[in-house]
Specification:
By secondary structure, this protein is α/β, with parallel strands linked by helices. It is built from seven helices and six strands; from the N terminus they run E-H-E-H-E-H-H-E-H-E-H-E-H. Strand 1, helix 1 and strand 2 (34-40) form a beta-alpha-beta unit. Helix 1 (16-29) crosses helix 7.
């Protein structure tokens, strides 16, 4: 039987994107023979060249090029910063030239998830912004079809481009039931497709 990992690569500032990542991971883990590999990225600064510790104080480890190569698929997530992915995640992706030159990600499926503070906070453009470099890598985009019931009933986050979370006045990591279901559905879908492609 296939035993493989799907990478859940994300950056979270206040906990909402981390909460979504963990629901995506639950969806991945629900597929036989496939496990989620949670990875994050360190903060970046525009004013210093400070070096982050090689291991974060808490949460998942920092992503490496080995994670990209070893995993059979990826689900990538970020808070929305003016309708775009957060700088730390963009910085990590900008450093993947060697993987691009080797074609290390060609043919692997990916999905995306995002969180915002308001309903019109740029969720869909953030999801698309994360997809652009991965399409350049030759990856295959996987969204959430409308056959997923929670996509039609959600009154908070969730799009066909990928799971989203709207914080509003709730705690940052307080996901609605629909947001959780959509995140799990995408994780399972990417894992199933990745398993079929890898086989």
């Amino acid at each position: 039987p296939l035993m493989a990992d799907v990478l859940v690569l994300y950056y979270s500032r206040n906990g909402a994107t981390d909460a979504l990542a963990r629901e995506v991971a639950r969806g991945i883990d629900s597929v036989d023979g496939i496990s989620a590999r949670l990875r994050t990225v360190p903060d970046v600064s525009s004013v210093t060249e400070a070096t982050a510790d090689t291991v974060p104080e808490s949460g998942p480890p920092y992503a490496t090029s080995a994670d990209l190569e070893e995993c059979i698929g990826m689900v990538i997530g970020s808070p929305s910063n003016f309708g775009n992915m957060a700088a730390p995640l963009k910085h990590f992706l900008d450093g993947t030239l060697n993987e691009w030159l080797r074609g290390a990600l060609v043919g692997k499926p990916f999905g995306a998830f995002a969180s915002t503070g308001s309903l019109h906070g740029g969720q869909e453009t953030t999801l698309i912004s994360m997809g652009i470099p991965l399409i350049h890598h030759g990856m295959v985009f996987v969204g959430v079809p409308y056959t997923e019931p929670a996509l039609s009933t959600t009154t908070s986050g969730g799009t066909p481009y990928g799971p989203t979370h709207v914080t509003w006045n709730r705690e940052a990591d307080s996901l609605s039931d629909e947001e959780k279901q959509i995140a799990r559905a995408l994780g399972a879908r990417v894992a199933e497709i990745a398993g079929k492609l890898a086989a």
